[in-house]
Specification:
By secondary structure, this protein is an alpha+beta fold. The protein has helices at 2-22, 221-234, and strands at 26-32, 37-39, 51-56, 59-65, 68-71, 83-85, 94-101, 107-118, 125-130, 136-142, 150-155, 158-159, 167-171, 181-187, 190-193. Helices cover 15% and strands 37% of the residues. The structure holds 2-acetamido-2-deoxy-beta-D-glucopyranose (NAG) (3 copies).
Length: 235
């Protein structure tokens, strides 16, 4: 049993060291829809004799060997072999990989990364619900394109640390002041902020329950007088 565990441990170590030796850093690249993007191949002195290939989601999109382009257009890459992507669309997103092989077919350089195509965030709109007691409110931050969006909340311009969800629950007693709450949204390519909403004016305490009925008032002296005179009159 102990022996088996030991062998398993050695196997895991060996496997992970092999993976580490062959793996290349993978970059995450975020770019705006409709923009142009250059995927850098840090091969400054790319020899004309080398073979350069770029693939998108494992499909070859550019291939050049000994200066002859057999796939894609010569203008798809710059002098350093970097790939030029124009007018990014949703279909431009995905995995990109470059391979440079020298004449003896040894891979001498490369690049790999994942491209995220993100839309410019729209200006968010904050809506809120007051609870029935009027003590707390739940705010909601709506943005048209919430994909890859990070949320943040501010109260009177101060960031509320740790509040990173699209909803925010607040105690109205804790957050005094009337400059209000706003949310901001950002993705890796853009940022936008909502108008401030003021809760104090809108989340009203419900009407107070009617005051308890006053205890029955003792008859006033006037009543006695009246009654007395009535009695006297009757007499
Ligand atoms: C993208 O590149 C094309 C061609 O070089 C150019 O006409 C266009 O203005 C560029 N677009 C942006 C958003 O920079
Ligand atoms: C960019 O792509 C969009 C949609 O794919 C297209 O409608 C638009 O005309 C393109 N713009 C340019 C400058 O090519
Ligand atoms: C290709 O690269 C390998 C490793 O760097 C090297 O040994 C070989 O000589 C290179 N071949 C050419 C033609 O440069």
């Amino acid at each position: 049993m102990v022996c088996d565990d030991y062998r398993l441990f050695v196997l895991l170590l060996t496997t992970s060291s092999i993976v580490a030796a062959v793996s290349e850093e993978t970059f995450n690249v975020y770019a705006l829809l409709g923009s142009n993007l250059t995927l850098p191949l840090d091969q400054k002195l790319l020899s004309d004799r080398d073979t350069l290939r770029w693939a998108h989601n494992s499909k070859a999109i550019f291939s050049r060997s000994s200066g002859v382009v057999s796939r894609g257009m010569p203008t798809d890459v710059d002098a350093a072999g970097s790939l030029q992507l124009l007018n990014l669309s949703d279909s431009s997103a995905g995995d990109y990989k470059a391979d440079v092989h020298n004449r003896t077919r040894v891979r001498v350089n490369g690049w790999s990364g994942h491209v995220y195509v993100v839309e410019k965030v729209s200006t968010p709109v904050v809506t809120f619900l007051c609870d029935s007691s009027g003590a707390t409110a739940t705010l909601k931050c709506d943005v048209r394109n919430p994909k890859h969006v990070v949320f943040a909340w501010t109260h009177e311009g101060q960031l509320l640390t740790g509040e990173t969800k699209p909803t925010l629950s607040v105690s109205l007693a804790k957050f005094k002041g009337d400059k209000g709450f706003s949310c901001s949204v950002s993705n890796s390519a853009s940022k936008a902020q909502s108008n401030a909403v003021q809760l104090k004016l809108k989340c009203k305490q419900p009407p107070l329950p009617p005051p308890p009925l006053p205890p029955p008032t003792p008859p006033t002296p006037k009543d006695y007088c009246f009654k007395a005179s009535t009695i006297m009159a009757a007499v």
